[in-house]
Structure formats: C-alpha cells, structure tokens
Amino acid sequence: MSSCQGELPEKKFDVRATDQNGNVLVNETIATLRNGFFELWLPRDRRIELTIQGFDRKAQGVIETFDKSKTCVTTFRLR
Which conformational region is residue 22 in: left (phi greater than 0), alpha (psi within -120 to 50 degrees), or beta? Predict the structure, then answer.
C-alpha cells in the first residue's frame, strides 16, 4: 500500500476551469483534503484551461478529459 502527501493540506484555493468553448465549468474556492490534494469532477472529452490561485501565487495549465487522458495530475506549481 502506498500514499501520497501534498505540501498544502487543508488549505483554500480559488479554482477556475474553462473549456475549449469558453464555458466556465468551475469557479469556486476549494479546500485541499488532509492529504494536500483536491478533486475536480469535469465533463468528458474536453480540453480545459485550469487556474489555481492561493497564497498570492498562481498555477495555470491545460488538462484534458479524453479516454486516454491522465486522471491524476500533480504537475501544477504555484509561482
């Protein structure tokens, strides 16, 4: 058995997810879980611009929700 531990457990972040058509899918404050990660449930078959803000820093990037897309993304870094 293994587990992962993120660096910022139980912290709040402003999260915005917009799909390739400009539809806002998420625009809310989300708290990380005790393990330091948070979950987003997003529609399938989309290319999504994700912005995460907190601690006067921001992370941005694109994720995809196609059949062969990753379901766990840990590469966003607050800068």
Answer: left
Angle at 79 between CA 22 and CA 27, to 5 degrees: 30
Residue 5: the pLDDT is: 86
Banded model confidence at residue 1, pLDDT cuts 50, 70, 90? low
pLDDT digits (tens, 9 = 90+) for 11-39: 999 999 999 999 999 999 999 999 999 99
Ordered by start, the domain boundaries in the chain are 1-79
Each residue of 23-52: b (16+ CB within 10 Å) or e? eebeeeebebeeeebbeeeeeeebebebbb
The partner residues of 26 in beta bridges, in order of sequence, read 17
User: What are the tokens at 39?
Assistant: 């979950």
- Which CATH architecture does the domain made up of 1-79 adopt? Sandwich (2.60)
